[in-house]
Design goal:
The complex is a heterodimer of chains A (573) and B (239). Chain A is an alpha+beta fold. Chain A has 2 domains: 1-19 and 47-236 and 352-565, 3-Layer(bba) Sandwich (FAD/NAD(P)-binding domain); 243-346, Alpha-Beta Complex (Flavocytochrome C3, Chain A, domain 1), CATH 3.90.700. Helices cover 36% and strands 19% of the residues of chain A. Chain B is α+β, with helices and mostly antiparallel strands and 239 residues long. Chain B folds into 2 domains: 2-103, Ubiquitin-like (UB roll) (Roll); 106-238, Orthogonal Bundle (Fumarate Reductase Iron-sulfur Protein, Chain B, domain 2), CATH 1.10.1060. Helices cover 34% and strands 14% of the residues of chain B. Chain B is built from 9 helices and 7 strands; from the N terminus they run E-E-H-E-E-E-E-E-H-H-H-H-H-H-H-H. Chain B has helices at 33-44, 106-114, 134-141, 151-155, 157-160, 170-180, 188-195, 209-213, 220-238; strands at 2-9, 19-26, 63-66, 69-72, 86-90, 97-99, 102-103. The longest helix of chain B has 19 residues, at 220-238. The chains are: A alpha+beta (573), B alpha+beta (239). The interface between A and B is large, with 64 and 61 residues.
């Protein structure tokens, strides 16, 4: 193993939307480098389909206050309202900025950016759906990712592609860099920086059924946790209502935004019963639970799914607005959504929780808001919190773009005040020891089997419907799997593109995060947003209108929610 | 059903030259070829290396050659092949093999970067969006489906031939098309200057392989033809 030291002003881990947006902010006058375990444009932001929300009112009247109300209500009142207000008020600027950078948004008849309906987004505080989602057909994430990557090329941002981060470096009370494993060479590098941004995305691969890509293993979340930081609200895991059955691939909510209807095996538009006002356009947690309830009560299809019916929309509209999902359905199921309904079921999609930050992306060490110097987080791995207990569709791209930029601005300011100094080689030596000991490990266990066990048990114990008994069992089982992981053997000892080695490390992160999720869920004795407890089916604002913080020793603490404009009230769609 | 694979293998650490290795796995007709590769790695041979990310044809990571044709391993299903047929899996052509199915994508991204893949504007924007009609948007809409998987460039006979391999390749030209035909872009002159040469748009010999293999059904060859036409028109303007 060869090792090298590099020094940059700012290092960003993750090349998805949050990371790239932060880089663009800093690139002009700062030495910024992006580290990613995949090649450029392969990050999972690219799989986002539906759009970015902003109350720009191109189709009909809209106001940021309505957007804010919807986001807060969608969050089941757990989002911090000061942060939500910043995000929704900044949203129109974000859209115009993207357009100016070149994002090829779909257009309406006036030549302006087209907007469409999306779940939970309404006019006049919940009266009826509003067209708020700016989109580029159903490939919005991909084209924004491409555009931001292109901007990074234009600004000559340095990339370290296929570099897997092994640890965060902490020295004299400040986070000062990362140690990386270069997949293409097997070399280990120490990258020092004045400021460090974690923008590593989500962790959906902890679950068996997920829309997330293979790389969404939550590395950044657990690296922060291992480096002494708490994780916030990790019990709130979003299951998207319409995963393609049985693969779990995302079928965008845009399908319902454009007029698609969910039907059970009797052909009923069942969402009328669960959300009389907005029906199929209710928030995701509500629709996902409705689907599973239909299935449990015998009105689903064999195997546990329902139908998403687009057949009344016509081929032209489907191909214009939903090209990608049409292509997925044709390729993977061999059926044509123009003529046949799509089989769908809930799929693990997004983690609302994450590394606690303030509204400038600064990572917080504790419930009183102490700053972790030098460390920033943005995007899905961060928890500002703007999504609370349940995120609304199209608010995640907005989150990455608003808070990625703000983290970039804050880092620029931060590094202007500090002086670089050489950092110790010790973290490099530790990383080499870690890799060496993984290679030397002997035992009968296999990564793939432990991973599949984890994915199944998280579906059984920590998905849409939860209870104390089941979560307790889940915790015991995860702890057993963590023990079994100690007895794995890495067969591949090669230095070039050794994915077995990387997956062994990823699995360690996944098991730690699974334990944090189960513990957070176990302790929250109420139902709120995506967290539904069969033994505590009601929301309990007296005891649980607060954020969960899990510390590295598994200590559980809580933090109050910022309530500014909207007092919690009953949540009906 | 039983699926048989013959997979290209090369590890620069241990192998003087590449070789092919056979594998047999139990697969479901609905499985992706990518699932099969993962199964081989999990159950049979953890030393096999290949790239993947989204698993459904959006990220562009898993371009390989399947029975000689460039494709995404996540877009081809077991049911597309006959039982007992030996499926040949090889790395993309044109690019240097680093290990097994993993190729060096740096030259690909360098050429992509060469065409200045970003909106070039001279007129400052207003406070809101630049207008663009539905018709104007439609002109380049097919091109924005590109996921930079490199299947087209790897399949292009011009890129494959060492004598003409300096050709910028279809993927970079599709992105050039995307900006040249975007009504908001004002960088035509500088982009055309980069493309108006034998290794630029004129490198294309209209072999149609790019169009045939494109996993996103982009009319690549037609778009390259449109770029050539635009170059010719711009020359007329100068005369």
């Amino acid at each position: 193993m060869i090792s090298t030291n590099f020094q940059h002003g700012i290092i960003i881990v993750g090349a998805g939307l949050a990371g790239l947006r932060a880089a663009v902010e800093c690139a002009e006058n700062t030495d910024v480098a992006i580290v990613s375990k995949v090649l450029p444009t392969r990050s999972h932001s690219g799989a986002a389909q539906g759009g970015v929300t902003a109350a720009i009112g191109n189709e009909e009247e809209d106001r940021w206050e309505w957007h804010m109300f919807d986001t807060v209500k969608g969050s089941d009142y757990l989002a911090d309202q000061d942060a939500v207000e910043i995000m929704v008020r900044d949203a129109p600027r974000v859209i115009y900025e993207l357009e100016h950078m070149g994002v090829p948004f779909s257009r309406n008849g006036d030549g302006r950016i087209a907007q469409r309906y999306f779940g939970g987004h309404t006019r006049d505080y919940g009266k009826k759906p509003v067209k708020r989602a700016c989109h580029a057909s159903d490939r919005t994430g991909r084209v924004v990712l491409d555009t931001l990557y292109d901007q990074c090329l234009r600004h000559k941002v340095k990339f370290y592609p296929e570099h897997y981060v092994l640890s965060l470096v902490h020295e004299d009370g400040r986070y000062v860099g990362v140690v990386t494993y270069d997949l293409s060479s097997g070399d280990i590098n120490l990258l020092a920086a004045g400021a460090l941004l974690l923008a590593t995305g989500g962790c959906g691969r902890i679950f068996k059924t997920t829309s997330n890509g293979f790389a969404s293993t939550g590395d950044g979340l657990n690296l922060a946790h291992m480096a002494g930081l708490p994780l916030m609200d990790m019990e709130f895991i979003q299951f998207h209502p319409t995963g393609l059955y049985p693969l779990g691939i995302l079928v965008s909510e845009a399908a319902r935004g454009e007029g698609g209807i969910l039907r059970n095996s009797l052909g009923e538009r069942f969402m009328e019963r669960y959300a009389p006002t907005v029906k199929d356009l209710a928030a995701r947690d509500v629709v996902s639970r409705a689907i599973l309830t239909e299935v449990q009560q015998g009105r689903g299809f064999e195997g546990g799914y329902v139908h998403l019916d687009l057949t009344h929309l016509g081929e032209e509209k489907i191909l214009e607005k939903l090209w990608e999902i049409t292509s997925f359905v044709r390729i993977y199921l061999g059926i044509d959504p123009v003529h046949e309904p799509i089989p769908v079921y809930p799929t693990c999609h997004y983690i609302m929780g994450g590394i606690p930050t303030d509204t400038e992306g600064r990572v917080l060490r504790d419930e009183s808001g102490t700053i972790a110097k030098g460390l920033y987080a943005a995007g899905e791995c961060a928890c500002v919190s703007v999504h609370g207990a349940n995120r609304l569709g199209c608010n995640s791209l907005l989150d990455t773009l608003v808070f990625g930029r703000r983290a970039g601005l804050a880092m620029k300011e931060d590094i202007a005040k500090i002086e670089h100094h050489p950092i110790s080689d010790e973290p490099l030596e530790k990383a080499k020891e870690l890799i060496g000991s993984l290679f030397d490990n002997k035992g009968p266990e296999k990564i793939d089997i432990i991973r599949r066990n984890m994915q199944s048990l998280m579906m059984d114990h920590c998905s849409l419907f939860r209870s104390e008994d089941s979560l307790g069992t889940g915790l015991e089982e995860i702890r057993l799997l963590k023990k079994r992981l100690k007895n794995i053997e890495i067969v591949n000892k090669g230095r070039y593109f050794n994915y077995e080695l990387m997956e062994a490390i990823e699995l360690g992160h996944q098991l730690d995060l699974a334990e944090v999720m189960l513990l957070s869920a176990f302790r929250r004795q109420e139902s709120r947003g995506a967290h539904f407890r069969e033994d505590y089916p009601a929301r309990d604002d007296n005891n649980f209108l607060k954020h969960t913080l899990i510390f590295p020793g598994r200590e559980v603490r809580y933090k109050p929610v910022a309530v500014t404009r909207f007092r919690p009230e009953a949540r009906v769609y | 059903m039983i699926m048989k694979f013959k997979v290209f293998r090369y590890d620069p650490e241990n192998d003087d030259k590449p070789y092919y290795q056979g594998y047999e796995i139990e697969a479901d007709p609905k499985d992706r070829i990518l699932d099969c590769l993962n199964k081989i790695r999990a159950e049979d041979d953890p030393t096999l290396s290949f790239r993947m990310s989204c698993g459904h044809g959006v990220c562009g990571s898993d371009g390989v050659r399947i029975n000689g044709t460039s494709a995404l391993a996540c877009q081809k299903l077991v049911r597309d092949f006959k039982e007992n047929e030996e499926v040949l899996i090889e790395p993309l052509q044109v690019f240097r093999v680093i290990k097994d199915l993993v190729v060096d994508m740096n030259p690909f991204f360098d050429r992509y970067n060469f065409i200045r893949p970003y909106l070039i504007t001279k007129t400052p924007p207003s406070g809101k969006e630049r207008p663009q009609s539905i018709e104007e948007h439609k002109k380049f809409e097919d091109a924005i489906r590109c996921i930079l998987c490199a299947c087209c460039t790897a399949s292009c006979p011009v890129n494959q031939d060492k004598a003409t391999g300096a050709y910028i390749g279809p993927a970079a030209l599709v992105r050039a098309f995307r900006y040249l035909f975007d009504s908001r872009d004002e960088g035509s002159a500088e982009r055309i200057a980069l493309l108006d040469n034998k290794d630029g748009a004129w490198g294309c010999q209209t072999k149609w392989m790019c169009t045939k293999v494109c996993p996103k059904e982009i009319p690549v060859t037609k778009e390259i033809f449109e770029v050539k036409k635009l170059i010719l028109e711009s020359r007329k303007g100068e005369e």
